[in-house]
Design brief:
The chain is of the alpha+beta class and about 425 residues long. It folds into two domains: about 350 residues, Methylamine Dehydrogenase, Chain H (7 Propeller); about 70 residues, no CATH class. It is built from four helices and 28 strands. The strands form seven sheets. Strands 1-28-27-26 form a four-stranded antiparallel beta sheet, with no helix packed on it. The longest helix has about 30 residues. The radius of gyration is 29 Å and the shape is elongated.
Length: about 425
């Protein structure tokens, strides 16, 4: 297969090491976290402008989207939820939701990665040696438990036992099963409903010379890739019995750096993109593990420390972020068009989603107006009766209760007289 991503734009907002990037599901927004302690959200369709940002007391280290909410993990182990893209038409409601910061959990170590299942009701979080499991109840997220830590295996160099670090956790098709990657200890397959590892060791055989940086699961849950800090990109096939290593794509980084590099599946699982310490992100085809394109991000010594991917309508988007210390960092957006935008037609599902969104906004506004009317009727019942009683009776074609009024010549009151009566009633209420 061929890959033809071209540069779409550059974002210069981060002023320090870019730790993580994440596109919203529709590809409209991009979130970034960096060592300048700021979480930012950019509008891709509006010249990459910053539409929301939040500065914290420590660097945010992980970020992901779910149901329009932004989940952020930081160096202190805090898991926080924001709502930066509120679509309410009422300004003060929108600004209030954007400023809301909901603390979900406090972990014991920095948060490395986060991943939701496809249903969006379960979350895996890697923090130091621990993998934390969360479930959604109603609209709140609740911590369930830590996964049992793995028993180290393999040989040690000079008999030193390396520290256990969880670098990635991925749900499989069965939402009760997941695969966990560890820096020195390979992969473990875990069964959530029985709370035990189904396999003791997968993948690496030597703890000293093979290290898993970051990993990614294919959309069909049949394979997984991992950046090997010493050898490049390792490809594995997931089988019920074991994790079978298929090949290694050579992207060896300079031993002086030895940093974990990000990797993602892209193009419907037909390719992967991997960060490097050589100034570019490398795209590999899945079938043979062959490199098919290099996305030139910066100089030859630039580290690509963050990646994001989204597919929306007629195009695919990749975001690359760098982390060279002592230099101004940037984010580069890459785009691959899937067809002629002038001939692009909305899919039926997209049309249905748009109509549903419009109906939701209109319905919400109607409910707000009804609520305001109810409050007015509750606080000022006499005024409401004088003002709205005749109108409601007339609307439903009902006659007003007859009163014994002395027979006088019929005189139709003017509009001015009606207004005076209403103002007089209002004055009596306020007196």
């Amino acid at each position: 297969m061929n890959s033809s991503y071209s540069q779409l734009g550059v974002i210069l907002a981060p002023t320090n090491y870019v730790n993580a990037l994440a596109f919203s599901v529709d590809g409209r927004y991009l979130a970034s976290t960096s060592n300048d302690n700021v979480v930012r959200v950019y509008d891709i369709g509006n010249q990459f402008s910053v539409i929301w940002e939040h500065e914290d007391s420590c660097p945010p280290t992980a970020v992901t989207w779910m149901d329009g909410n932004l989940f952020v993990g930081n160096m202190d182990g805090d898991l926080v939820r924001y709502c930066p893209t509120s679509t309410s038409t009422i300004k003060w409601i929108r600004e209030y939701r954007r400023s809301t910061r909901e603390a979900i959990y406090k972990a014991d170590a920095p948060i490395h990665t986060m991943e939701f299942n496809t249903r969006g009701d379960r979350l895996l979080l890697c923090s130091g040696a621990d993998v934390l499991f969360f479930k959604k109840h109603s609209e709140s997220w609740q911590f369930q438990d830590h996964f049992p830590r793995p028993v180290p295996f393999g040989e040690y160099y000079n008999f030193d036992t390396p520290e256990t670090v969880a670098t990635g956790a991925h749900f499989l098709d069965d939402h009760n099963e997941c695969i966990v990657a560890y820096l020195h200890d390979g992969f473990r397959k875990f069964r959530i409903d029985t709370w035990e590892y189904t396999k003791n060791q997968w993948g690496l055989s030597n703890r000293s010379f093979e290290k898993i940086g970051y990993s990614a699961r294919s959309p069909d849950s049949k394979s997984v890739v991992a950046t090997n800090l010493h050898r490049g990109l390792d490809w594995f096939k997931i089988t019920p019995e074991k994790l079978k290593k298929m090949s290694t794509s050579g992207e060896i980084q300079d031993r002086r750096f030895n940093i974990p590099l990000p990797v993602l599946f892209i193009n419907n699982g037909q390719a992967t993109v991997m960060g490097t310490t050589k100034g570019y992100a490398a795209i590999f085809e899945v079938k043979h593990g062959k490199k098919i394109q290099a996305l030139k991000h910066g100089g030859d010594q630039t580290w690509i420390t963050a990646l994001a991917y989204a597919e929306s309508g007629y195009r695919r988007l990749i975001a690359t972020g760098d982390g060279n210390c002592g230099q101004r960092t940037k984010i580069v957006i890459w785009c691959e068009k899937l067809g002629d935008t002038s001939s692009y037609k909305l899919r039926p599902w997209t049309v249905i989603m748009k109509i549903t969104q419009i109906i939701s906004i209109v319905g919400r506004n109607i409910l707000i107006l009804l609520g305001i009317a109810f409050v007015v009727a509750l606080l000022f019942p006499a005024w409401w009766k004088v003002l709205m009683g005749p109108r409601m009776m007339a609307y439903y074609s009902l006659e007003l209760p007859r009163q014994n009024i002395p027979s006088t010549p019929s005189v139709t009151p003017s509009s001015t007289a009606r207004i005076k009566e209403i103002l007089s009633s209002l004055g009596d209420l306020l007196a």
